[in-house]
Amino acid sequence: MTKQKYITLILILGFLTALGPFSIDMYLPGFSAIADDLNTTVNNVSLSLSSYFIGISAGQLLYGPLLDRYGRKRPLYIGLTVYLLASLGCAVTKNIDMFIGLRFIQAVGSCAATVAAMAMVRDLFPVEDSPKVFSLLLLVLGLSPMLAPTIGSYVIAVWGWHTIFIILAIMGFAVLLASRFGLPHTHKPDPSISLKPKPILTGFAKVLTTPQFYTYAVSGAVAFSGLFTYVAGSPLLFMDIFKVSGETYGWIFALMSVSFIGVSQFNSLLLRWYKSEQLVYIGLSLQLIISTAFLIAAINNWLGLYSTIIMLFLYLGCLGLTNPNTAGLALAPFSKNAGSASALLGALQMGMGSLASMAVGILVKDSMVPMVAIMASTTLIGLGILLIGRKNIKEFAQSDSSDTIIAH
């Protein structure tokens, strides 16, 4: 593979994975405007974020078997078309319940891009390169939290929040074109893969019961839900509690992403000297220390705006270390059913994220303590799952001719 082709693939796969997060981040500064326009509350608007996470979680389980059965591209095209139409629907809706429902449908469409991108990483690159590739994807993905809220705040100020979803529809169409002309067919349709419920559930069960998968996928998903906690809670935290403007919030959100993306890129260098397994343990341990200190400070009301930003900056940096490594380790044992494994991994991440974001919408009112408590508790649970699961992991080798996972 030439360097130019490698870069092109990384960019397109990165934009596929960034579509969903861009859809999450870009409208965050508009929560108050949407609430006013739809005659509802900011907390009710935040439920549209939860419905988006639920849609991604459920949708990924749908697309996984489809990507393995029909190849990567056809389900991808269908999903992006659904995303485009739902985005246009969000732009014209006048009802909060309809808005929440359309966000769910929008998510079901966008997650086709996420699952296809993760499966194509497994198709196109050697297993040992997966953590490095995921780190590079996070670099492209980082454009979302760095640019989306800031751009969104200015778009809303000039044209209103409806324009956000028109822009997202245009982005979906652009990604569809890039996928059509820039990505190869990486996986031939496999008629032997059944789409009946029982075989699908059996396939998911096979993936989920693989020790390497459930250890790193579940521990990573639980710990990574701290990011969704931050995303869901940050509009309430900064704009309602600390009373910053929408434009200022956009810049704060962009600053925070520097930590997550910067550390994820530093991870590529660390992999020269450390194994992914070691980096996951180090990242979660640091995350626990930081989130515990954050919680103690929040309970005692020691934090102002700037100190809160510092603590969140450190916390998000830990996620940048753990996420690419847990993803690479979880998917490593799979080839033929990489689509189902990628879907299950994404569903776990988004499922945990939707639960965390719903908890934020219910609990976070006029204090940051509930948000930080969720961050600390999910980190503790994630580290506990890692420590227990590592005892059950054996070293696996995979033959070139089959999916069989052989224990040494």
UniProtKB/TrEMBL annotation:
Keywords: Cell membrane, Membrane, Transmembrane, Transmembrane helix, Transport. It is a multi-pass membrane protein. It is found in: Cell membrane. PANTHER family: MAJOR FACILITATOR SUPERFAMILY, POLYAMINE TRANSPORTER 2-RELATED. Pfam families: MFS_1. CDD domains: MFS_MdfA_MDR_like. It comes from Flavobacterium suzhouense. Residues 6-394 form the Major facilitator superfamily (MFS) profile domain. This is Multidrug effflux MFS transporter. Belongs to the major facilitator superfamily. Bcr/CmlA family. Its main location: membrane. The chain crosses the membrane at residues 45-64, 76-94, 100-121, 133-152, 158-178, 213-237, 249-267, 279-299, 305-322, 343-364, 370-389. Coiled coil: none annotated.
